[in-house]
Design brief:
Layout: H1 16-19, E1 23-24, E2 26-31, E3 37-42, E4 45-49, E5 54-59, H2 71-79, E6 81-86, H3 92-97, H4 108-112, E7 116-118, E8 125-127, E9 132-143, E10 150-161, E11 180-182, E12 188-190
Antiparallel strand pairs: 1-11, 2-3, 2-6, 4-5, 5-10, 6-9, 7-8, 9-10, 11-12
Length: 202
C-alpha cells in the first residue's frame, strides 16, 4: 500500500511509530526550581553526537496543569538540567506506571516506591538502580511543527554505569539488563541477542 501522511493511512492505527522502531527510551528524571521531582518515559530519544556526547529528546502533547509541554519539559526549562535513566526488562512495569498523568506536584519516585540518588555534576535526582544514567545539560530547545511537539538537545556531562553491567574486560554489556525499547501501538521489546559486523574496508 501507499499513502500520503497528510491524508492518513486508512488503517485502524497509524503505523508510523511501528515502522520507526525499536526506539530507545529516555526515562527522564528532573527537579523543578521549587524542588518538585518528576520521572517519565520518552521514546522519541537518541544519541546524536560523540564529542561532546549529545542527545535529543522530543516531547509530544501536553498536560492540563502545564502551559506548555509536560512536567519534564517545564522542569528542564526552569533548571537547564535533567537525567536520562536507561531502563531494562525488569523495569518495564515501573516505567509504564510512570507514564501516567500524575499531578505536577506528585513525585513518581515516591508514588511508585523507586529509589532515587543524587546526580554528581548537576542538581537533579536519578534512579539509583538504573543500568546507566546520563547527566544532561540543556543546550537548545526547538518548537517542532505540530501542536505540542517540542524538542530538547542536551550535552551529556557525566555518566553512571551499574557495576554489574560491566564485564571484566571493561565492556558495558547490555545483555546483562536487556534494554527496554519502544515499538508502535502498545508494543515494547527488550534486547536479548547480539551479533557483530565489522565495517568493510575498501
Amino acid at each position: 500500500m501507499f499513502y500520503l501522511t497528510k491524508e492518513g493511512s486508512g488503517l485502524p492505527r497509524d503505523p508510523f511509530a511501528a515502522i520507526v522502531s525499536p526506539r530507545p527510551i529516555a526515562w527522564i528524571s528532573t527537579r523543578s526550581a521549587t524542588g518538585a521531582t518528576n520521572l517519565a518515559p520518552y521514546s522519541f530519544f537518541n544519541a546524536v553526537a560523540y564529542t561532546p556526547p549529545q542527545v535529543i529528546v522530543s516531547s509530544i502533547g501536553g498536560k492540563p496543569d502545564r502551559a506548555k509541554g509536560k512536567d519534564s519539559y517545564s522542569h528542564i526549562l526552569e533548571t537547564g538540567v535533567f537525567c536520562i535513566n536507561i531502563a531494562g526488562f525488569e523495569d518495564r512495569d515501573a516505567l509504564n506506571a510512570s507514564s501516567a498523568g500524575y499531578p505536577a506536584d506528585q513525585s513518581e519516585f515516591e508514588a511508585l516506591g523507586l529509589k532515587a540518588a543524587e546526580c554528581e555534576s548537576i542538581d537533579c535526582p536519578r534512579l539509583a538502580d538504573a543500568p546507566a544514567a546520563l547527566e544532561c545539560r540543556l543546550t537548545q530547545t526547538i518548537d517542532l511543527e505540530g501542536a505540542g511537539n517540542l524538542m530538547v538537545l542536551a550535552r551529556v556531562e557525566a555518566i553512571h554505569l551499574r557495576d554489574d553491567c560491566l564485564t571484566e574486560e571493561g565492556r558495558f554489556d547490555v545483555l546483562r539488563y536487556k534494554p527496554l525499547t519502544r515499538l508502535g501501538y502498545q508494543d515494547f521489546a527488550s534486547i536479548d541477542k547480539l551479533f557483530q559486523m565489522r565495517r568493510p574496508k575498501l
